[in-house]
Model the fold of this input.
Amino acid sequence: MIYLITVETNSLKWLLTLAQRKQTIDGKSILQVYSVILKASEGRLSLLSLVKDGQTSIMRLSIPCTGDGEVVITDIETTLGVLKYHGGVVSITPSSNKVMFKSSNKQTTLSASKEAKAFPHNPSSIAQWEEKSSLLAKKINVDDLTYTANDGTMLECNWVFADLDTTTLYEAFRCDSMNGQKFNKYEVLFDSPSDLEIRVGGELKGKTHTMIKGVHCNTDYGFCATYNGGLEHIFANLNHDATIGVWDFTHADMGYPMIISLGDGDYIFQASNL
Done:
């Protein structure tokens, strides 16, 4: 059966760009996700994927669409290169080992297979990686901000920061790039009823503390955690308020993982450094 899915080209470009989860390591921009499977259902085109290391982060992202079906994106970067030459509304037609993108007067076809490698130098196929991602995603309930442990215990977030301005967060996290530092290391500190502090950088080229005042949290109990994961890149691609939940998993030597709730069932789960 041939499926036809339609989306706004700019929305699809946003979805795939954020899905790449860029981060800087040793001064180089690294992609954490290379390929995805897009699923269209009930008016949303969504993706679900772990990052390359298979454990520190998982995300579910979606955009509005029409139609139903499944699209394999074998190479996100190549697909973004295709979409750069299309505009307006684009229709996506997946078929056997191919996917076709068609706008008003252009049509581009790419090869597409679930059996292709999910990442370079990784034996897992795209299909296998999605299955692995789905198993972890079953533990996360973004509506209740809960995580189900291996023994079945449902764990609520210890801290919930509601309606945070993502532009303010981006301005804090992007200071990691001050004078070309790009450590990809973000320290988050909460130690008052309404102030959230972000610390990035080093004193040699500029260590920056940003105080975000007037935040709404469910508790005044404090914590301090350090994250990687390219948070600067994440918040550069968000333009609406988000809710952030944080768990205290120190009893299990798992630090303080966070979940960024984006609405529409979308989220980014990011582990902290140990």
Remarks:
- Residues 5-122 form a domain with the DNA Polymerase III; Chain A, domain 2 fold (CATH 3.10.150.10).
- The helical segments are 9-19, 76-83, 126-137, 166-173, 231-236.
- Residues 96 and 251 are 48 Å apart (CA to CA).
